[in-house]
């Protein structure tokens, strides 16, 4: 029989009033057990007219200040975030039968933070950030490959590829974080943390 915490949930829901402590634990387990990309998450944005869109992106860092991912600001998601900074994330770790849902608003990371991460990327990925006009229509694939070759010639020193101004990171500052565990007969376990008006976290149980 599975051990329970003080709320009657599975013990994987450690007793804590701090959601980032629980996220640390779950994310650490996902990094050990997920075969591919434990940092993959679905990112939901919406246009200024309220039309939603969703895609997979990779988490590149997090702290109590937010969850960080990177993108081309001229892409669909980049433009939608500029128009409407309220976004949602969802991690699904199938190997653990767990999900984490996060809602909040995003702000741009500092140039220093973006530069430091950009410099860790492979040469080809840094060139790609210049060559790909993300989400725009291609007449053919050669158009993209020709752009890649163009920028390889421009930045032929692999140690000196500057970060494009249109490419940077966003940090999602959460308003709520929900932890979900698959349950037998669809009696799932759900624990939600949300920010109160005084800036503290409060946790509640949700019905499956």
Essential attributes:
5 helices; 2 domains; Pnp Oxidase, Chain A; alpha+beta; 34% strand; elongated; nine-stranded antiparallel sheet; 26% helix; single chain; 208 residues
Description:
It contains five helices and nine strands. It has 208 residues and is α+β, with helices and mostly antiparallel strands. The chain folds into two domains: 1-115 and 169-208, Pnp Oxidase, Chain A; 120-162, no CATH class. Strands 1, 2, 3, 4, 5, 6, 7, 8 and 9 form a nine-stranded antiparallel beta sheet that branches. Strand 5 and strand 6 (98-108) form a beta hairpin. The mean pLDDT is 95.
Overall geometry: elongated
Determine the CATH topology of the largest domain.
Pnp Oxidase, Chain A
- Enumerate the spans where pLDDT stays under 50 for 5 or more consecutive residues: none
Count structural domains.
2
In short:
With 208 residues, the chain is an alpha+beta fold.
Helices and strands, with pairings:
Blueprint: H1 19-33, E1 40-46, E2 52-58, E3 61-63, E4 66-72, H2 76-83, E5 86-93, E6 98-108, H3 111-118, H4 123-131, H5 141-154, E7 167-181, E8 189-195, E9 201-206
Antiparallel strand pairs: 1-2, 1-5, 3-4, 4-7, 5-6, 6-7, 7-8, 8-9
Helix pairs in contact: 4-5
């Amino acid at each position: 029989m599975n051990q329970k915490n003080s709320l009657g949930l599975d013990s994987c829901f450690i007793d804590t009033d701090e959601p980032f402590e629980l996220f640390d634990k779950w994310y650490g387990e996902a990094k050990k057990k997920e075969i591919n990309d434990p940092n993959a998450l679905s990112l939901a944005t919406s246009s200024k007219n309220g039309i939603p869109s969703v895609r997979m992106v990779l988490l590149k860092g997090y702290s109590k200040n937010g969850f960080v991912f990177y993108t081309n600001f001229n892409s669909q998601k980049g433009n939608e975030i500029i128009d409407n900074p309220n976004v949602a994330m969802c991690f699904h770790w199938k190997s653990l039968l767990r999900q984490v849902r996060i809602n909040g608003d995003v702000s741009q990371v500092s140039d220093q933070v973006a530069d430091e991460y950009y410099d860790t990327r492979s040469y080809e990925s840094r060139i790609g950030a210049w060559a790909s006009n993300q989400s725009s229509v291609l007449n053919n694939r050669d158009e993209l490959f020709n752009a890649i070759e163009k920028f390889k010639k421009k930045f032929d020193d692999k140690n000196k590829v500057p970060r494009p101004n249109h490419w940077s990171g966003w940090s999602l500052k959460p308003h709520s974080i929900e932890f979900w565990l698959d349950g037998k007969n669809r009696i799932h376990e759900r624990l939600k943390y949300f920010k109160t008006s005084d800036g503290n976290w409060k946790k509640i149980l949700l019905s499956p």
